[in-house]
């Protein structure tokens, strides 16, 4: 009777290990492999999004130092390869397009003199 209890306990431990492997460890390994393939396939001209939400185009990839130089509309920044979240597919825009309206202005127009706005209207 004691042997059956030991065997059933060992069987439950083995079943729990198999469960954890197939439902936790295996999917995580697949995600890591997919991410590694994505990072190893980076090349100049790819559109990417960083973990901080910056959208840019790859200018240079340095595999020895694990860095990537991004062109962000004329501003060049260097990031670690681990800072890249996704590569934007070729058919999609890197940034969402939004029509600008007059209300989107971050400041009011004028000459910068805030003391007398009546003079601005008379000019």
Automatic annotation (TrEMBL):
Keywords: Cell membrane, Membrane, Protein transport, Translocation, Transmembrane, Transmembrane helix, Transport. It is a single-pass membrane protein. It is found in: Cell membrane. This is Preprotein translocase subunit YajC. Pfam families: YajC (PF02699). The chain crosses the membrane at residues 6-25. Residues 90-123 are annotated as: Disordered. Belongs to the YajC family. Residues 110-123 have a biased composition (Acidic residues).
């Amino acid at each position: 009777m004691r042997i059956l209890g030991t065997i059933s306990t060992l069987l439950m431990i083995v079943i729990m290990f198999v469960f954890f492997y197939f439902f936790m460890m295996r999917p995580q390994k697949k995600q890591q492999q997919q991410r590694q393939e994505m990072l190893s396939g980076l090349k100049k001209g790819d559109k990417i999004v960083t973990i901080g939400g910056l959208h840019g185009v790859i200018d240079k990839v340095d595999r020895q130092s694990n860095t990537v130089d991004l062109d962000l509309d004329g501003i060049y920044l260097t990031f670690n390869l681990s800072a890249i979240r996704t590569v934007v597919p070729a058919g999609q825009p890197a940034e969402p397009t939004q029509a600008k309206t007059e209300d989107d202005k971050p400041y009011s127009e004028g000459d910068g003199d805030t003391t007398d706005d009546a003079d601005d209207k008379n000019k």
